[in-house]
Design a protein that fits this description.
It is built from seven helices and 22 strands. It is an alpha+beta fold.
Length: about 375
C-alpha cells in the first residue's frame, strides 16, 4: 500500500514537471516567434527596421559606425521622405555630436537591402520648390550666422562624394521689390531661389541609440510608416496656386535685379569709356573732320583727318594728304590754355574742347572733329 502511494506521488511529480516544461516551451517559442516576426506593416518599413536593429545589436563601436550609429550619440531622430527617384521612401536619421548636427541618408537599393550615405553635416531636411528648375525636392539644410546651405537629397545619393553644398545663400542679401499692385516686399536670396509649400511634413520619431529596445523601435517605425504620405500627393491645387503666386513675386524681383544690374553695367561702361575735359565729356575713340589751308600752286587744299584717343592716354592721327599733314602718334594731355580747356597732342596739335564729343582746331575756325560712335 505504501509503495502504491509513493508511485502515485512520483507520477504526479513527473506530470507537473512535464506541464511546466511544456509551458516554458510554449512561452519560449511564442516569444521567439513574436520577436522574429515584428512587422511595421510594410515591406520597406520592415527592411529599415531589420537594418537598424542589426546595427544596434553590433557589439563594438567600429561595427556600429558602419550603420551610421556613432559612439557618444544617445538619441537620434527618424523621418521618411519621398525623393522621386527612389522607388521606396528614403529614411533620414538626424543627430547631434560634439556641438555639430549630422544627417544620415538610408535608401533601399536594387537588391532590396539598405544602402547609406552617412555623417552629412546638415541639421535638418526641407521639402522645397526650386524656382530655377521648377521642381519639388527634399534638400538637406545647414546654416551659419550669415548663410543657409542646401543640397538635394537625390543628388547626394547619386553622387556620394559630393562634399560642397549646391546652394549657399547669403542671409543678409535682401532686395526690396515693388510689385505690380504697388506694394513693396523684401526678398532674401532664399525667397528668390526656393519656395516652401504650405504642407505638413511627415512626422518624426526619436529613438534611443544607447539603451535601445527593439519593441520601442518597431512601434516608432510603425507609427512613421502608418502616418507616411508622399509629399507630391499633398500638393493640391490650392497649395500650387500659392506657390505660383510666390514664384511670380520672385520672378519680378529677379527682373528688377537684372534691370538694375544692366543699368549699373551700362553706367560703368559709359563711365569707363568717357573722360571729362572741363565742363564737357569726351568719349575715347575716333574723331573725324576736315582740315584745310592755302598751298602755293594748289590753292585752298582740304583733307580728311582722323584722330583716335585711347584709354591709355595715347593717340593716333591719320591724314588723307601727307603733303599737308603727316600721320603721327604719341600721347595726349588735358590742359587749360588762355582759359580754354584743350587736348594737346604730343606730335603737334592743339584742340579746344567747347562741346561734348567735339575737338575744335581753334576758336572761330569752323574746323571741328566729332566723335564717331
Amino acid at each position: 500500500m505504501e509503495e502504491k502511494k509513493k508511485s502515485k506521488k512520483g507520477l504526479i511529480a513527473i506530470i507537473i514537471i512535464l506541464v511546466i516544461l511544456v509551458i516554458v516551451a510554449i512561452i519560449y517559442f511564442a516569444l521567439r516567434y513574436f520577436n522574429g516576426n515584428k512587422t511595421t506593416g510594410t515591406t520597406w518599413g520592415d527592411t529599415y527596421f531589420a537594418y537598424l536593429t542589426e546595427g544596434l545589436e553590433q557589439e563594438n563601436d567600429e561595427e556600429r559606425q558602419k550603420y551610421g550609429l556613432q559612439s557618444g550619440v544617445e538619441k537620434a531622430e527618424l523621418q521618411f521622405i519621398e525623393t522621386g527617384e527612389e522607388e521606396e521612401p528614403v529614411m533620414l536619421m538626424s543627430y547631434d555630436k560634439d556641438d555639430k548636427s549630422y544627417t544620415n541618408i538610408y535608401y533601399i537599393n536594387d537588391r532590396n537591402s539598405v544602402s547609406s550615405v552617412l555623417n552629412q553635416e546638415y541639421s535638418d531636411a526641407e521639402y522645397l520648390y526650386n524656382i530655377n528648375n521648377k521642381e519639388y525636392n527634399w534638400y538637406l539644410h545647414s546654416e551659419s550666422d550669415s548663410t543657409d546651405s542646401y543640397t538635394n537629397v537625390s543628388n547626394i545619393i547619386n553622387n556620394q562624394n559630393q562634399s560642397e553644398p549646391e546652394y549657399v545663400l547669403d542671409k543678409n542679401n535682401k532686395t526690396e521689390v515693388e510689385l505690380e499692385d504697388g506694394n513693396t516686399v523684401e526678398l532674401s536670396e532664399f525667397d528668390k531661389t526656393f519656395i516652401k509649400p504650405d504642407i505638413e511634413d511627415n512626422s518624426k520619431q526619436e529613438i534611443s541609440i544607447v539603451d535601445y529596445v527593439a519593441d520601442d523601435i518597431v512601434k516608432k517605425i510603425n507609427s512613421l510608416v502608418s502616418n507616411y504620405d508622399k509629399e507630391s500627393d499633398k500638393i493640391n491645387e490650392d497649395v500650387q496656386n500659392k506657390v505660383d503666386g510666390l514664384v511670380q513675386v520672385a520672378e519680378e524681383a529677379k527682373q528688377d535685379q537684372e534691370n538694375s544690374n544692366n543699368t549699373q553695367e551700362e553706367t560703368t561702361q559709359t563711365e569707363s569709356s568717357t573722360f571729362k575735359v572741363g565742363n564737357y565729356t569726351l568719349h575715347y575713340g575716333t574723331y573725324k573732320g576736315t582740315d584745310g589751308q592755302y598751298a602755293d600752286g594748289r590753292g585752298v587744299v582740304k583733307w580728311n583727318v582722323t584722330i583716335k584717343l585711347n584709354q591709355d592716354g595715347t593717340y593716333t592721327l591719320t591724314s588723307s594728304d601727307q603733303t599737308m599733314q603727316k600721320n603721327n602718334s604719341g600721347t595726349f594731355e588735358v590742359s587749360t590754355l588762355q582759359g580754354k580747356d584743350v587736348i594737346e597732342l604730343s606730335g603737334g596739335g592743339l584742340y579746344i574742347v567747347d562741346a561734348n564729343d567735339t575737338l575744335t582746331l581753334y576758336a572761330g575756325s569752323g574746323k571741328s572733329f566729332t566723335y564717331q560712335e
